[in-house]
Design brief:
By secondary structure, the protein is mainly β. It is built from no helices and 36 strands. A hairpin with a 2-residue loop joins strand 20 and strand 21 (218-222).
Length: 410
């Protein structure tokens, strides 16, 4: 049945205000509580992959698709799901890919050009290509043709996940071989020899705070040059007999903060969702209202809600915006004048360098401006293009928040 829990949780320096967790199971209309993947859309709408079919949630209730209601669906056991820009829904099974056009499903298999029918992940690139991860490699669909990438370009172990860099590169999470990067013509690789803490990659998230690699032994954080900047191996607190943190998924929310799913199924059965505020990790687990410890995939909605699939239900975490009053401040920051109508001067207690990132965010966490640190103790923030209202100027260093100030545009 659906359960809801509201709590205020202190994440060692970062406060999540009145955080609300709501869980859905088969008692609420899901075809199965065993949920494997989710895509969050605007307005509380989501698509969910379960062990007994596909479910669409419109914000109120679930509509179920299975092989009885939609005979074109390849199978009821769904491994992966994605929603393309044209609204089509791509569903991955062990018997091929099924595509829902709003009315019916069309299934594609190896007979149509797939490298394998055992699907692990599906993502659409910004250019419109749909990438399909399988147990044997990767398949790209460009709207008319399936193109397969396998050994030796994609080493043994298949592809578990995709991410897309701002330059157009396709990042692939290797099941046993680290990261493969495809630039459209050639492959390059990031392996344990380059600093990854494990070659078993389950998820990749690329963002301004770094490149976050979810592995079987934790999260490796890379910078823009793909150099290791941090190894996060204890993001989820476990009993002392077992401290290893296998990461099942990693995503960046609308504020650029990192969320990770962790699940341990040996020695102990523990798991949940961890959250990184730039300084420390906090966690949510079953006792906080999460559906269960076996976390599979996460998805962030445009409203910044975090949807979590587990083997025992689906949970949405709402009200996750960070209280700016709780940010750990190492750089003292003032704005004058404040409020302002045309411009304000940002005054720093120390000279900022190229290692610092300065961003202007609105109350919903959207970034409106990125400013370049020049080595000076002050910068001018121009009002041009900004609507009247409250904003946050945030200073970060290597993904960690080091200072902030609220400013008001009149």
């Amino acid at each position: 049945m659906r359960t809801s829990l509201t709590l205020s949780t202190l994440f060692i320096g970062t406060l999540l205000n009145a955080q609300t967790l709501t869980t859905y199971t088969d008692a609420d209309g899901l075809p199965s509580s065993n949920c494997r993947d989710v895509v969050a859309l605007a307005g509380e709408q989501i698509w969910v992959a379960t062990a007994a079919g596909v479910a669409f949630f419109d914000g109120t209730g679930f509509t179920v698709h299975n092989t009885t209601s939609h005979p074109g669906l390849a199978d009821n056991s769904i491994n992966a799901i994605a929603v393309a820009a044209d609204g089509t829904v791509w569903v991955g099974t062990d018997f091929g890919v099924s595509v829902f056009d709003g009315t019916s499903y069309t299934t594609y298999t190896t007979a149509d050009g797939l490298a394998s029918d055992q699907i692990r992940n599906i993502k659409q690139a910004p250019n419109g290509d749909v990438w399909i991860g399988t147990n044997l490699g990767a398949t790209k669909y460009d709207g008319s043709t399936f193109t397969n990438y396998s050994q030796p370009d994609v080493p043994f172990g298949g592809v578990n996940h995709f991410a897309f860099d701002s330059n157009g590169d396709v990042w692939m999470a290797g099941g046993l071989s680290g990261i493969m990067i495809y630039d459209g013509s050639a492959f390059s690789y990031i392996t344990q020899n380059d600093g990854l803490i494990s070659p078993r990659i389950n998820s990749i998230a690329l963002g301004n705070s770094g490149r976050w690699i979810g592995t079987a032994k934790g999260v490796t954080q890379l910078d823009a040059s793909n150099q290791v900047t941090a190894q996060h191996t204890t993001l989820f607190e476990l009993p002392t007999a077992d401290t290893l943190n296998p990461v099942t998924d990693v995503v960046l929310d609308q504020n650029g903060y990192t969320w990770a799913g962790v699940y341990v199924d040996y020695l102990v059965t523990e798991g949940g969702v961890s959250y990184f505020d730039g300084n420390d990790w906090g966690q949510l687990e079953s006792s906080d209202g999460l559906a269960g410890p076996n976390v599979r995939r996460l998805s962030v909605s445009p409203e910044n809600n975090i949807w979590v699939t587990t083997s025992t239900g689906l949970t949405v975490i709402r009200d996750v915006n960070i209280s700016v009053t709780e940010l750990t401040a190492h750089v003292q920051l003032r704005a004058f004048p404040n409020p302002f109508t045309t411009h304000t001067r940002l005054l720093f207690s120390e000279a900022l360098t190229s290692a610092h990132r300065i961003e202007l965010l609105d109350v919903n966490g959207r970034v409106h401006r990125s400013l370049l640190a020049t080595g000076a103790h002050e910068l001018v923030l121009d009002r041009e293009g900004l609507a009247s209202g409250l904003y946050l100027v945030r200073v970060s260093e290597q993904g960690r928040n080091v200072g902030s100030v609220r400013v008001v545009v009149e």
